Amino acid sequence: MKILVFAGSTRRESLNRRLARAAAEAVHAAGAEATLLELADYPMPLLCGEYEAENGPPENAFALQALIADHTGLLIASPEHNHSISALLKNTLDWVSRTPRVRGANPFAGKVAGLMAASPGGLGGLQGLDPLERVMSTLGCLVLPQKVAVPHADKAFTPTGEWADFASEKRVAELVAAVVRVSAKLAA
Description:
Blueprint: E1 2-7, H1 15-29, E2 33-37, H2 49-55, H3 59-69, E3 73-77, E4 80-81, E5 84-85, H4 87-98, E6 112-118, H5 129-138, E7 142-143, E8 148-150, H6 166-187
Parallel strand pairs: 1-2, 1-3, 3-6, 6-7, 6-8
Antiparallel strand pairs: 4-5
Helix pairs in contact: 1-6, 3-4
């Protein structure tokens, strides 16, 4: 099983990037292959109808389409911005969802998605996961019902990125195991 793991943030000290790295390690521990994606490596302009009409989707949207299609499952660490998902993540998902009209099939269709968030607040970014679930379901993903929010995430990791919050580590490992398990069953 190949699981694509990424955060909806490009900020260097992003807690969700730390969470994505920890989840990628948990994928390996669960016996699957993890690809840790950095959205900073795939910059795209803001989705705009005029831009799309003149240029089509950007090449990085097609590169992500191919990368997503090559994986059986997704793990997304999403920052919460105003009780929703980050503009970066939404823009990325929107552009990639436009690519099937130009090249190939919907890369999200039938993928298993595990959603998680990390925040220094007491809810751990939980309120941003419901909007992300709606978007991912609309794109054709089977979104697992268990979501993981890591509260007080500024204290959940050591300075070197290791887990300091073992309860959150356990919940992430359980979500990862579920993504790997369901992906394997659907791929069979």
